[in-house]
Write a structure and sequence with these properties.
Blueprint lengths: L2 H23 L13 H16 L10 E5 L3 H9 L6 E6 L3 E3 L4 H5 L9 E3 L7 E12 L4 E6 L7 E5 L2 E4 L4 E2 L7 H4 L6 H18 L8 H5 L1 E5 L3 H21 L8 E6 L10 H14 L1 E5 L3 E4 L3 E4 L3 E4 L2 E4 L3 E2 L2 H6 L5 E2 L4 E4 L4 E3 L6 E7 L4 E3 L8 H20 L17 E6 L2 E5 L8 E4 H14 L3 H17 L7
Helix pairs in contact: 1-2, 3-11
The protein binds flavin-adenine dinucleotide.
The site of flavin-adenine dinucleotide has 33 residues, from helix 3, strand 2, helix 4, strand 5 and helix 11.
């Protein structure tokens, strides 16, 4: 350290010490004892203490306000890891928690309790600010976001300003405009959906047990239909089958032989993204369990009691779960007026740095990013998965830190490259499939070993220590005592 720097530090140390003592005497500081420590310690003590007193969040944030819309895989990963020394972080999301979607199907049948698969956003307060609200629209020129509170008795409108915006609002389930789906089908996107499914399964069994129900009505009530033969539909069917055969069979022995389960898909095969041999294995296992697979089948309409199948008439059902396809949500639809969208998937189109592209000139908008299911990179098609959303969020976090360190310059930011880590799917009765054929490893595994891998991978990926304790605890409880069948 040179002499001038030493002199500066000594000088400032004395001055800061005097200033701190004065501020403390004026009751402006919260530091209990002020010692002559290092220059850096003085600076950080003063700054953090003043911030605490005044509730300020932006002191020293060179990059200003970073607003993150959404608290799903993409938004939550970013808000959790972003360097708040550079950015004043504001999160806007209608739900104040993150949902660990790979274990949502387990929670919908009670293998896990709902609490095990959520993480509260507020855990990261006061490092970040949070508003429970929907973002309705974004004014890119004025750098403002118009929001509506999402609280029971409060639907207030308010506007917030941003310097940098990250859109991570995910996508909605696609009903493809099929009449009745929105009214009568259940979805599996959020914890509230999982709760509805669990209640409905139990309700179907209770309805079928009522004294005045006719024999003809029972098979319809106990027909569980799933539309969508992708990983979500297959995993849910597998979990539901476990629940019915392991728990409901014991509690409703007279009804169990009347239960049917069907997976419908308009595509010619289920699990289209998996290796052919694994697909065949899943079909064999499902068929053996008695789960019917109806591929190449179009559901034309849905009413309160029936699915209307093209060329096949009406099929009664007790519960219908719709697990097929995604479409844009209202915010990304509204942004489509001035941002280029991928026409087929209806996602916001971005460059390799996740910057959205303006409709005016096709150029990237420098301070507006889109990641996760609501966005796709131009000429770089990636699936709408948690894996992609997570990697995009990690990359964006690095880019934003780089920009902050380089004083706002974009020069050293690297383009995104996806690393495919393979796919996994649970197929029931403690069996799963792991497909790494799309990676460099070229491996695939199925059966119980794959199930152990499936469970341990997701267990490792859970975020909080609380859930790392709760999840294995519920797995063990379910193993010993079965799933809870109370309906409330
Ligand atoms: C049951 C299920 C199982 C899955 N299993 C896997 C799996 O095993 N592996 C895998 O890779 N992928 C899996 N996926 C897919 C994965 O969950 C999604 O790809 C991932 O959630 C996308 O992350 P996201 O952050 O873009 O969107 P989401 O996680 O959907 O989050 C969107 C967020 O935006 C919020 N939001 C919505 N509208 C607004 C608005 N207007 N303003 C502000 N906030 C808004 C929402 O409340 C939510 O917090 C699964 C999906 C489901 C449904």
């Amino acid at each position: 350290m040179n002499k001038t720097r030493l002199f500066q530090q000594k000088f400032f140390r004395t001055k800061y010490h005097e200033a701190l003592l004065t501020m403390q005497s004026m009751n402006l500081l919260t530091i209990p004892t002020i010692k002559k420590t290092s220059y850096d310690a003085f600076i950080s003590q003063t700054a953090s203490s003043i911030m605490l007193r005044r509730g300020m969040t932006s002191l020293g944030k060179t990059q200003g306000k970073l607003v993150i819309l959404g608290s799903g895989w993409a938004g939550f990963k970013l808000l959790k890891d972003i360097d708040t020394r550079h950015y004043e972080v504001i999160v806007v999301s209608p739900r104040n928690y993150f949902v660990f979607t790979p274990l949502l199907a387990s929670s919908s049948v009670g293998t896990l309790e709902f609490r095990c698969v959520v993480e509260p956003v507020r855990r990261y307060s006061p490092k970040i600010q949070y508003y429970q609200a929907y973002a309705d629209s974004v004014d890119i020129k004025k750098q403002t976001i118009h929001c509506t509170s999402n609280l029971n008795n409060k639907k207030d409108k308010f506007t917030i300003q941003y310097d940098t915006l990250v859109v991570a609002v995910g996508a909605n389930s696609n009903t493809f405009g099929i009449p009745g789906v929105g009214d009568y089908a259940l979805f599996l996107k959020d914890i509230s959906d999982a709760r509805k499914i669990r209640q409905r399964v139990i309700e179907c069994f209770e309805l079928a047990s009522q004294p005045n129900v006719t024999k003809e009505e029972i098979p319809g009530l106990l027909h569980f239909a799933v539309v969508g033969g992708g990983p979500t539909g297959v995993e849910f069917s597998a979990e539901l089958h476990d629940f019915i055969t392991q728990d409901m069979a014991r509690l409703y022995p007279d009804l169990i032989n009347l239960v049917t389960m069907t997976v419908y898909d308009v595509a010619p095969q289920i699990l289209g993204s998996f290796d052919q041999s694994l697909r065949d294995y899943a079909i064999k296992k499902f068929t053996r369990k008695g789960i019917q697979i109806r591929t190449g089948t179009l559901v034309e309409a849905v009413n309160e009691r029936h699915l209307v199948i093209k060329d096949n008439g009406n099929v009664s059902y007790g519960m219908l779960v719709w697990a097929t396809g995604l479409t844009d949500n209202p915010l990304t639809r509204a942004m489509g007026e001035y941002i280029i969208k991928d026409q087929s998937a209806k996602r916001l189109l971005t460059d390799n740095y996740f910057r959205v592209l303006s409709k005016d000139d096709g150029m990237p908008v420098n301070n507006v990013y889109a990641i996760g299911d609501c966005a796709s990179i131009k000429d770089y098609d990636l699936p709408a998965t948690a894996q992609v959303a997570n990697q995009k969020a990690m990359h964006l976090r690095k880019s934003l830190t780089r920009i902050a360190k380089d004083g706002g310059s974009f020069e050293n930011v690297k383009p995104f490259k996806f690393t495919n880590l393979g796919s996994m799917v649970y197929i029931g009765e403690q069996k799963a499939m792991v497909d790494l054929t799309s990676t460099n490893v070229k491996a695939k595994e199925r059966g119980t070993l794959a199930w152990i891998f499936w469970r341990s991978s997701y267990f490792t990926m859970t975020i909080s220590l609380r859930n790392k304790i709760l999840i294995p605890m519920y797995w063990i409880l379910t193993w010993f005592f079965g799933r809870d069948v109370s309906k409330f």
